[in-house]
Input
Amino acid sequence: MQKQETLTKNQKIILDLIEKSDQPLKAYSILFDVKKKGINAPLQVYRALNKLVKIGKIHKIESRNAFIACKNSKCQIANATIFSICESCEDVTEIHDNKLSEHLRDFKDNKGMKYNKYNLEFFGLCKKCV
Amino acid sequence: MQKQETLTKNQKIILDLIEKSDQPLKAYSILFDVKKKGINAPLQVYRALNKLVKIGKIHKIESRNAFIACKNSKCQIANATIFSICESCEDVTEIHDNKLSEHLRDFKDNKGMKYNKYNLEFFGLCKKCV
DNA sequence: TAACACTGTGTAATAATATAACATAATTAA
DNA sequence: TTAATTATGTTATATTATTACACAGTGTTA
Output
C-alpha cells in the first residue's frame, strides 16, 4: 500500500472542482471558480495543482495547458499517461490500454536513458466530429 | 512526392536558427536572437514557428514550450513524434523506433476515434545524469 | 488585366499561463 | 521543544501566446 496522502483545504477544494468536471480545466478558470471559496491568487491554484499532479490525483494535458482528474481509483499512474484529444470539440479521454502501456513501459532506447515517466497524447476527431 | 514548400524570409531565418541548435529553443529566446535580422515582434516568431511545425520542419516539445528541428530528412512525420527528455540536464532527443511507431500508428481505442497525430514524451535521466 | 482569394508582413496592444520573493503558520520528525 | 518540512497568503513580475488592424505579394481565374 502506498502512503495515503492527506490533502489540505486548498488542495481539496481544487481537486473537488476538477473531479466534478469530466473535461480538463484551465488554471485561471479554476481560479475564477474557487474565488468564492477564498482562494484569491494564481499561485494558490498552481501550488495545489502541482501537488495534485505529483500524487497522481490529476494529470496535466500538456498540449492544452489544462488539468483533468485521474479516473483510475488506484491513482498509481501519475507517471504513465495516455490521452486522446478531439481537435474539433476538444473532448479529452484518458486511455487505459494494457498492451500499449506495456509497450511504453518496456521501451528502451539505444542511449542508455533511464525512464521513469511518459506522456502520450493522440489527436484526431471523435465519433461525433468525424 | 509532396509539394515542396517554399519558405519565406522570416521562416528561413528562424528555421536556420533552430537547425543550428541541437536542443529545443524557446520562442522568446529565438526572438532575442533574430532581432538583429529585423524580426522585432513575438508574433513574427510565432507565425513562422506555427508554419514550420505545420510542414514538419520543426516540432514543439509540449511539456517545455520549446521547438526543435526535425532531423528526419524526409520530414513526413510532423504528425507522429516521440521524444526523450532528461529531467536533469533537459537534453531532448527525437526517437525513431519503428516498432514503437508501428504500435502507435496502429493503435485503436474502443470509442471509434479517428487519429491523425500523436505526440509521445518520455521523461527520465540520461546516461550522464544518472 | 482586373477582381479575387490566399498567404504573409509589421506593429501595437493585450491576453493567458506561470513563477519569484517574502513573511508567516501549521504539521511532522527527531 | 527544537528543527525540518510543507503549506499559506499576498504582491509583483516573468513567460508564453494571441487579437486586431492595415497592408503587401503571389497566384488564380474570368
Q: What stands out?
A: Residues 9-124 of chain A form a domain with the Arc Repressor Mutant, subunit A fold (CATH 1.10.10.10). Residues 42-54 of chain A form the longest helix (13 residues). Chain A has one domain: 9-124.
